[in-house]
């Protein structure tokens, strides 16, 4: 069992203000696998005070970008050496299959670090422009200040690093609030930050629940909030930040559509959707959970998906053969089961899966991977984010109709089109209103901006655009005295 008795505040291990603890329960065995202190509003106050003082009074914010980058590069080296340990921690605390953890949960954060280092090395931190009124204008990119970062449980290190890496390179200080479901990876990461020699006061990690998170959002000492999570929570955070004119970036939910055109290689498409639709047990905001198929090939697509999904190995997430593990918590299991029941009540047909424990499982927070046919885009299972291994197959009349259905959503985070004609795929990619899009795949590249249209968020992460969310602009007009 992994246990912590202290919080990481300003780069030091500090006794918590309260006596509460967070028990981390394995979603596979339902046994205790970890325990950490539960942060309080007093702990947040202390962390923000340290971050504020460090930002305002130390050299961190005004250090040469190359010097900050050297510290981040050292952190990246240490992180790389412990990636497999991090993957094991994440699988243990939230049930991600170990193959996915070793592929994405820990390597992707390291790749983010190295990519942001490359972006920062080329970034124009200070530019000189010829003034329109004569003379020269200096445009500086300076750190936004103290950042409050709130991250979810599904890909905890992935989301953490999308905020931590650019914040550090920009010269910000940061207070991280990880989800109470997944505090172990965050505190393990704090150990690596300490080993890397990140200066005191720059980073704090406070595991806590929603009320403490809202206290961080409201804190007058915080200059920017970076949040990833549900759209409902994002709306509340945006309203609070709006009242305070506080900088905010939000990466929220999704209900992404995968459009299968008639010329697509169906076997290759279904193999691609195994990952794109069901990664991380379906607990991914970018998951392609609406599969759109033409009426001409609809039955063929449904049968192929049902065969693939019905053949997935469900079980112990530590087993390398496992393709679908448990959901993160019992409440998430119950949520997904309710959506499966709702889908049937609305008239959709369960082709494979359905409610009840998967074969061979008598404990743990498992659900059966499920495919629905006969789905209309007005149904709740087609409109609401389920966050589990559930696919809805929706028919379309022609390509224009497919684009219409894909766009008929409150969300706009991700999507894909599957076709033998790349030009046709590009045309559809341009017409679907979503922040990231794949042709014959779904992936994201850390050099390119990631984020959503509509209710999927505000702002972008990754690439130059992700770094700029942690910077303010200052114009200086010098005149010789």
For the sheet with most strands, the description reads: 7 strands, mixed
Q: Which bin fits the share of residues in helices? A: 25-40%
CATH T-level topology of the largest domain: Aldehyde Dehydrogenase, Chain A, domain 1
Backbone structural class = alpha/beta
Mean pLDDT: 97
Amino-to-carboxy terminus distance: 66 Å
Give the strand line-up of the largest sheet: 15-16-17-14-13-19-20
How many separate structural domains?
A: 2
% residues in beta strands = 15-25%
Cα gyration radius (Å): 23 Å
How many beta-strand segments?
23
The CATH class designation of the largest domain is Alpha Beta
Mind telling me which CATH architecture of the largest domain this is?
A: 3-Layer(aba) Sandwich
Q: What is the CATH superfamily of the largest domain?
A: Aldehyde Dehydrogenase, Chain A, domain 1
Low-confidence stretches: none
* Envelope shape: globular
Number of helices: 16
Question: Quick recap of the structure?
Answer:
The chain is an alpha/beta fold. The protein is built from 16 helices and 23 strands.
Walk me through what this model shows.
The protein has a seven-stranded mixed beta sheet with strand order 15-16-17-14-13-19-20, sandwiched between helices. The protein has two domains: 2-252 and 456-476, Aldehyde Dehydrogenase, Chain A, domain 1, CATH 3.40.605.10; 257-445, Aldehyde Dehydrogenase, Chain A, domain 2 (3-Layer(aba) Sandwich). α2 packs across α7 (184-196), α5 packs parallel to α6 and α10 packs across α11. With 481 residues, the protein is an alpha/beta fold. The chain has helices at residues 41-57, 65-81, 83-94, 98-105, 107-122, 156-170, 184-196, 210-218, 231-244, 266-278, 298-310, 330-345, 380-383, 399-407, 422-431, 463-468; strands spanning 2-3, 7-9, 12-14, 21-25, 32-37, 126-130, 136-143, 146-150, 173-177, 203-205, 224-228, 247-251, 257-260, 290-294, 349-352, 370-373, 390-396, 411-412, 415-418, 438-439, 453-454, 457-458, 471-476.
């Amino acid at each position: 069992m992994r246990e912590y008795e202290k919080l990481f505040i300003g780069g030091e291990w500090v006794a918590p203000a309260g006596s509460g603890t967070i028990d981390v329960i394995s979603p596979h065995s339902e046994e205790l696998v970890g325990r950490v202190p539960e942060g309080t509003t007093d702990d947040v106050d202390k962390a923000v005070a340290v971050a504020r003082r460090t930002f305002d009074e130390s050299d961190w914010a005004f250090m040469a970008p190359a010097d900050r980058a050297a510290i981040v590069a050292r952190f990246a080296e240490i992180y790389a050496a412990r990636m497999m340990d991090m993957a094991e921690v994440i699988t243990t605390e939230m049930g991600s299959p170990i193959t996915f953890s070793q592929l994405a949960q820990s390597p992707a954060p390291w790749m983010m670090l190295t990519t942001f280092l490359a972006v920062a090395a080329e970034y124009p931190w200070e530019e000189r422009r010829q003034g329109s009124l004569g003379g020269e204008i200096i445009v500086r990119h300076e750190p936004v200040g103290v950042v409050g970062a709130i991250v979810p449980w599904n890909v905890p290190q992935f989301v953490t690093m999308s905020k931590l890496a650019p914040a550090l390179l920009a010269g910000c200080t940061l207070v991280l609030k990880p989800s109470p479901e997944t505090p172990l990876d965050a505190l393990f990461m704090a150990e690596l930050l300490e080993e890397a020699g990140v200066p005191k006061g720059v980073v704090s990690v406070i595991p806590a629940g929603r009320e403490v998170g809202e206290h961080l959002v409201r804190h007058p000492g915080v200059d920017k909030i970076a949040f990833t999570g549900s759209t409902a929570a994002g709306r509340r955070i945006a309203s609070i930040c709006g009242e305070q004119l506080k900088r905010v970036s939000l990466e929220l939910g999704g209900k992404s559509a995968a459009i299968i055109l008639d010329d697509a290689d169906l076997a290759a498409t279904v193999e691609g959707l195994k990952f794109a639709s069901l990664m991380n047990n379906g607990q991914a905001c970018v998951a392609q959970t609406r599969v759109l198929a033409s009426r001409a090939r609809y039955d063929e697509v449904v049968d192929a998906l049902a065969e693939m999904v019905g053949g997935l190995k469900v079980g112990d997430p530590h087993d390398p053969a496992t393709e679908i593990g448990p959901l993160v918590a019992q409440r998430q299991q119950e949520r997904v089961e309710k959506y499966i029941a709702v889908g049937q009540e609305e008239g959709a047909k369960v082709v494979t899966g359905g409610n009840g424990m998967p074969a061979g499982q008598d404990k743990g927070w498992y659900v059966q991977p499920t495919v629905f046919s006969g789905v209309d885009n007005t149904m709740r299972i087609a409109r609401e984010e389920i966050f589990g291994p559930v696919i809805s197959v929706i028919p379309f009349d022609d390509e224009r109709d497919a684009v219409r259905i894909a766009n008929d959503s409150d969300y706009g985070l991700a999507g894909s089109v599957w076709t033998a004609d790349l030009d046709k795929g590009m045309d559809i990619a341009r017409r679907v209103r979503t922040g990231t899009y794949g042709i014959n795949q779904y992936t994201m590249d850390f050099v390119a901006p990631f984020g959503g249209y509509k209710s999927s968020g505000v702002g972008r992460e990754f690439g130059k655009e992700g770094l700029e969310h942690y910077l303010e602009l200052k114009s200086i007009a010098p005149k010789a005295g």
